[in-house]
Amino acid sequence: MSRGATFLGSEVAIMGGAMSWVSERNLVSALSNAGAFGVIACGAMSPELLDAEIAATKAMTDRPFGVNLITMHPALQELIAVCGRHGVTHVVLAGGLPPKGSLEAIKATGAKVICFAPALSLAKKLIRSGVDALVIEGMEAGGHIGPVSTSVLAQEMLPVIADQLPVFVAGGIGRGEAIAGYLDMGAAGVQLGTRFVCATECIAHPRFKQAFIRASARDAVASVQIDPRLPVIPVRALKNAGSELFTAKQREVAQRLDEEAVVMAEAQLEIEHYWAGALRRAVIDGDIEHGSVMAGQSVGMVTREEPAAAIVAELMEEAAGALDRRAA
After folding, report:
1. Phi, psi at residue 301, to the nearest 5°?
2. Sign of the dihedral through C-alpha 226, 237, 186, 15
3. pTM (two decimals)
4. What is the pLDDT of residue 243?
5. Would you tell me which of 249, 276, 289, 319 could form a disulfide with 179, CB atoms 3.0–4.6 Å apart?
6. What residue ranges are annotated as transmembrane (predicted)?
7. What confidence tens digit (pLDDT) does each residue in 218-258 have?
8. Three-state secondary structure readout of the chain
């Protein structure tokens, strides 16, 4: 883990997963202050909002933290410039392959670039393009997911790429023993989101947190794509009435595609905006029935609300214990 911690500039190589509306100044600074590595979820923020969020986070921690940017954001270059002005040390690009010029723009600010690699072929392509680190995230994760499980991705990819750059494993990690296992396989660190939603410092609505505490792994289900022409990335969330609302939204957008009232790129962006709004209703307003309660399958291991530092310490204690037992 020292390799990952050195790369991040943190005490331990545990990255906070960037969760829209959740991973803001309070949780991000709490994670970094606890020795982990907080990451701001920019999501659909404007450059002005991101500017204020980074400034507020810097006022709450003097330790490094990252910013997660969505590759399809129409103001991506401006967001990169905002990160550069603030001296953000690490920028995480999510949501697809980096657009032309984005890697160079980030590197020009002096920041490290971290990208998601859902397949070995994409990992190799990203390495050739000059990224500094990769996250391999399996389908057990919350929010937008790929089709392959974390354990399979780790077995397939770590032996091939882990010696070339730091690789962080994400998806379904809820205990330190799992962290130890991935480190043993060559990972430089891990990324966790779901475990940190019920951190005391997290601003998520009390009803949102209670939904996590009550849920089991099987309650976190992936959304269903109803029209093959509309390539909607599945989203894992706790099953509720909001799941049915998303199915209806897909039908509505697909019909407008039929009628040529919207082009494909606009249709996909509309779906993304839908998720952002549905997630906000759940996280901020506490509407856990009609909003989107995005959660990974590790939600069953979230049993109480506690400080971020306590969660990080428990994970590290479990990981150290597992490694000690292997060495004995």
Report:
1. -95, 5
2. positive
3. 0.94
4. 84
5. 319
6. none
7. 999 998 887 777 767 789 999 999 888 888 888 888 888 88
8. CHHHHHHHCCCCCEEECCCCCCCCHHHHHHHHHCCCECEEECCCCCHHHHHHHHHHHHHHCCCCCEEEEECCCCCHHHHHHHHHHHCCCEEEEECCCCCCCHHHHHHHCCCEEEEECCCHHHHHHHHHHCCCEEEEECCCCCEECCCCCHHHHHHHHHHHHCCCCCEEEECCCCCHHHHHHHHHCCCCEEEECHHHCCECCCCCCHHHHHHHHHCCHHHEEECCCCCCCCCCCCEEEECCHHHHHHHHHHHHHHHHHHCCCCCHHHHHHHHHHHHHHHHHHHHCCCCCCCCCCECCHHHHHCCCCECHHHHHHHHHHHHHHHHHHHHC
- pLDDT confidence of residue 13: 98
Q: What is the pLDDT of residues 78-97, one digit of tens each?
A: 999 999 999 999 999 998 89
The radius of gyration of the chain's CA atoms, rounded to the nearest angstrom, is: 19
Residue spans of the domains in the chain: they are: 2-199+304-327, 206-297
Confidence bin at 259 (pLDDT 50/70/90): confident
For residues 300-304, give the mean pLDDT.
Answer: 98
Q: ∠ CA(69), CA(215), CA(205), 5° rounding?
A: 55
Q: Is the pLDDT of residue 182 over 90?
A: yes
Q: What is the pLDDT of residue 245?
A: 86
**Beta pairing, strands 235-238 & 143-144:** antiparallel
Q: Which residues contact 315 (CB under 8 A, 6 or more apart)?
A: 14, 175, 176, 179, 192, 195
